[in-house]
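Reopening this ticket.

The earlier resolution said the output was attached, but the attachment link was broken on my side. Pasting everything inline this time so it's all in one place.
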Amino acid sequence: MCGITGWVDYKRDLTQTREIAWGMTDTMACRGPDDEGLWTQPHAALGHRRLAIIDLLGGRQPMIAEEDGQELAVLTYSGEVYNFQELRRELTAHGHRFRTQSDTEVVLHAYLEWGEDLADHLNGMYAFAIWDTRREELLLVRDRMGIKPLYYYPTLHGVLFGSEPKAILANPLAERVVDADGLRELFAFVKTPEHAIFKGMYEVRPGQLVKVSRQGITKRRYWKLCSYEHTDDIPTTVATVRDLLNDIIARQLISDVPLCTLLSGGLDSSSVTALAAKDLRESGLGKVRSFAVDFVGYTENFKPDSARSTPDAPYVHDLVQHVDSDHTDIVLDSVDLMDPAVRATVLRARDLPIGMGDMDTSLYLLFRAIRRHSTVALSGESADEVFGGYNWFHDPVAVNADTFPWLAISDISGQANLDLIDQDVLRMLDIPKYRADSYHQALAEVPHLPGETGHERRMREISYLNLTRFVQMLLDRKDRMSMAVGLEVRVPFCDHRLVQYVFNAPWAMKTFDGREKSLLRAACADVLPESVLQRVKSPYPSTQDPGYEMALREAVRDLLRDDDLSSRQIINPVQARALSRRVIDDRSAQETRGPLERMLQLDAWLREYQVKLDI
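Inline output:
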């Protein structure tokens, strides 16, 4: 999977600043524990940390393309290109010769053959940078769905870039400043394309190319969702979805290191696990390995809430028995979740105080445990966005609201988080206006069919908002928590062929059985047990242990006793203290946990990252 970073400066000799470039590269060590590399020439430095997945010996980076002893281009690359074998054959027919078996070399030669149009040929998850030594130009490329991250920071005479903000911030040219727009992005629970929160830093948008030359920086979208008439009937659509999933899973099972699946007992992860089990069994490769997260006493003491009506474990075990997977439950307790060292690691992985509390911490601990056995995992992430699984797809209030649907019906919007902000700061930020502007910007992008009206038109908009905004928050979380332990997590439901096809299926077809995710349920019905097929959507689990809530409250009270409270400029201590002392019951625990988590993380971030607020 790997971590990449680099520096272009047209006025400086970067061969004299290798120590700084190495420092940037070292911040990516968690993403690439297997190897490291740095390539420099006077105006460019490219760094790489490698997690070896394909061609363990031959895929070292940065990788250089040469001809007659002349360096043509240099690549630092993160991710996986799943169609690299077909591309290798095509490029060989064009006269290219390969020294390794890696997909990295295929990407490098694809650039030599097609230039920046290489992105049109790639199927996968990737973020990479190519320095063309002939033109002295840098090309940054991010995959279509934004599965892999990529940030950049323009400087006076060039640019800094990296897989994560920490790589950029390791360079003294990058200032650790957050202005009012950065705070708005932090607190609004929206995901504005290209916004990286730190002032002057940007995120390469999914499906975007960024070119850096002596003339400046230019950007181009090479892919985005488009609308076309869906002419397949329901049986054909279901069969096409299954055919696509069979092909996607088969491609994503290719690995030279141990591989597993993430299993929650829901329709999404169970479908991935079942199809993977089927493919491996038919290929004579044995059982699929699966892992699930659980909490001490969670199933026995489970209490249904507004988000979750059932615990995962019974459904996990039904699926395990049905497909005969080699399964392990990773069971956590509140001591694990409140471990200060673990929480600090999660914040460093995120680089920002935008976490989801114990759901981030437990995901990190799950991945850390998996990494002892496997290097690659397949996930069911993003099926809800693709097939319409969330409750806000089906709630008339959310669907008809003049805002992002996830903000309309759920406390996921974090209103209680805003209640902790100093009122003067809150008025200045004007979060409602920021959300409204972001929503209407997103709405203006939606590609409609001519004459499309009514509910179908609105559901296309809802789907687009989820596929371009909400999914990014979850993909970011998945990437940071997995790469913090050097685990590559693949996301089959983000294959752009599947996303594009299902996006254009009419909403009536996506709900043809009267439920959520009808197409996925029908496509995988033959490989799943009945209990999983009929299970109601349940999100990633969150601990229900009252001891965790009490530990959070005590941590906040301890923080408020500190005279050097880093977040004092933003947070209202009186409100925070009152919140930490509220009587605990099931409802108050749900309402207060998010704000308590946010305050602890915000204060730690301001202190540890030495953030300067420009508000």
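Reporter confirms the inline version is readable. The domain at 234-397+470-534 is CATH 3.40.50.620 (Rossmann fold). The longest strand covers residues 70-81.
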